[in-house]
Amino acid sequence: MELRSKIPAGPLEQKWDRHRAELKLVNPANKRKYTIIVVGSGLAGASAAATLGELGYQVKCFSFHDSPRRAHSIAAQGGINAAKNYQNDGDSVWRLFHDTIKGGDFRAREANVYRLAQVSVNIIDQCVAQGVPFAREYGGLLANRSFGGAQVSRTFYARGQTGQQLLLGAYQALMRQVALGTVTMYPRTEMLDLVVIDGRARGIVTRNLVTGTIASHVGDAVVLATGGYGNIFYLSTNAKASNATAIWRAYKRGAALANPCYTQIHPTCIPVSGNYQSKLTLMSESLRNDGRVWVPKRKGDTRPPHEIPESERDYYLERKYPSYGNLAPRDIASRSAKEVCDEGRGVGPGGLGVYLDFSDAIRRLGVEKIRERYGNLFQMYQRITDEDPYQVPMRIYPAVHYTMGGLWVDYNLMSTIPGLHVIGEANFSDHGANRLGASALMQGLADGYFILPLTIGDYLAGAPLAKVDVDHPAFREAECAVRERVKRLLSIRGTRTVDSIHRELGKLLWDYCGMARNETGLRHALRKIPEIRQEFWENVKVLGDGEELNQQLEKAGRVADFLEFAELMCLDALHRNESCGGHFREEYQTPDGEALRDDANYAYVAAWEYQGDDRMPALHKEPLVFENVKLAQRSYK
Amino acid sequence: MTNPDAAMNLTLYVWRQPGPDAEGRMVRYEARDINPDMSFLEMLDVVNEELISKGEEPIAFDHDCREGICGSCGMMINGVAHGPWKATATCQLHMRAFKDGDTIYIEPWRARPFPVIKDLVVDRSAFDRIIQAGGYISVSTGSPQDANAIPIPKDTVESAMDAAQCIACGACVAACPNASAMLFTSAKIGHLGLLPQGQPERYRRALSMVAQMDAEGFGGCTWHGECQEACPKEISIDWIARMHRDFLTATLTARPERVAAGGE
Known about the structure:
B: 7 strands
């Protein structure tokens, strides 16, 4: 396998413009002859499907939800970055590019990130034209706030529901295309395999979640926009159904999977309250604009927060990172929280929590201002914890939130399987080893609205695509494999529920491949995962049958894939003998506990190629070349 | 925080219906050792884990984000859409809303345009079709003008946002004695109709979305106000009044052949 990144030549600022000018085009009359399969209907999938429909392609869009509007992008709270420089605070495309490369700990491609920063400004224009009600100032112009890892205010937002409003914008554009007949929606339909013919992605096999019908769909290109794999940890801020099945199936059909060990642990989530916990809830990073993070200076201090005097509090982010303070990037803020809790200074039950305190901001701005900015988040916090954050500080703790790793793609967002394109969180492309806040929405929409719809035309115009139909042996074989697997899951009838096995896997990964990793722990996890996998295939209990709505069966299939994915994740973490961004190997740290990169040996993308179930995957390296930024140890001090 | 030792035992009556055409019935279950800090759906998770252990099929219900924003979940809890807490979707309802020994009746949304698929899962695709009828601004991806080119008063955008935050859960329909979808439809018409970008299509949008709403079999509004009481996002019935105004204006001014052309 050869990794050809296809990064265009020329100066960084001109790469995308030149590339666009050179891409092959499909003429309007021919576009309708091509069928494009889009899997997923979140920000990336919905924006891509709508835009491809507008261009004239025939689009089939698949979603396991009952409506595309339920995709998990909807839960993004804080905002979306764009280099508009409306605040006149020194922002620019260059600065957004630089912040993102640095925030990603120098493990992303310069050319991709620069393009992302360029396109960011178009996204805001597009969304406003669609009617997205971004927050505004009294003069009627758009408002901004700040997010971690940046010293400018470039984040656009719609209260604490930015993801919802952006997704509804894309969803509405998608519904418009459905009405026009260019896009056909397949709701409650899950992709269970990818079909590759003559080395090209030519379709997918799906299961209708209501009737259980297994079906094949032929296309001229396939786009995966299926999100991240954070739910591998069981407890995460992801929605319950978010899963890795689509990208894992593609991996097993030959698509390289890049940097699976890069997972993001978000510093501000509501702590776990009991062993029944089904998911974790994020408290938006935007809260760190006004909230101050602290713990008691003394170990085991059990006094309620208001009884701890100012002099006995440790505002550790402000102390350690004076220039960014509470807006230090996520990986750093999370590790710092873990550190103080490991020292025994954590607060709340079990000592796994730190305070996020708004009392200074309330004194400064008044309760009403705080309510206007964060009202819905405060309300959600109160419902979950039964504590009033206007009166007592929030208690927060890091939780799994996002996965920077994903299927490897070239500059055109195409994977190592020709015709298979991957966009949004499902690919690995733009965030390096750590994603900055408010950049996921930006990347999803950049890929879906502005990049993929152009680059996919270049593929279609240049690809010799033989006519195939669902009777092709490759479709028959894939359908057969999917049926067998469903049958097998239903025939085990063991004694353990899917959730109990998923929790076991999640706990193992959190302990050994979570916020901090080391060789001994990773080797332990690599020994344990096959045991859990064996337990699953011998002893899982899935009731009911395959020809009906069967939510346990859906879950079981996803967990079965997580049980394989987990091994690759740990393998990747073990091979990367350095710390970078969200990947913190305890053996590799600076004297003051910061991540210690090894640029001489690890400035590359690790792309893994499947070799068979019983064989080690092959590692391919795409060197990362930095021509425009200087590699340095990240400093937020 | 609630005392975690204050575990509760509850009696549930849950609507079980194996499939769209099968007959359904209420089935009694005991929920034991329920922690008041659990969410309502976590309580159902616990019941389901026990059912599976006993070899009984778990209760099917839609859910996903469990943060009150995706709109997937929703059930009638003791006859109230999303249960006893105001402005709260089912996933954000917590068990401290109940007390030891309580009996809870759990049913799916009941409305002809929302047919039951299984147990508590219903088909809400009618909502997508209402949006397809015109719940958008016809602007293709391209190069629109700069986002700040048209200033929008802060109050206007805040009002638009009040309507735009609808999560399409369907509680408004379930709560309404007429199974009306007017709160849902009017929220979208209101959101887009308030913004300058939404003006060119404002009246045809009102006509075509209302026409689709009627075609789906939703009832009319007779101002009971149950929808706004049930709405987890507290969307006001003022939006329905505004929709009526737009619809009336459109009826008086629109050209019929344009109406027939639908969403294009």
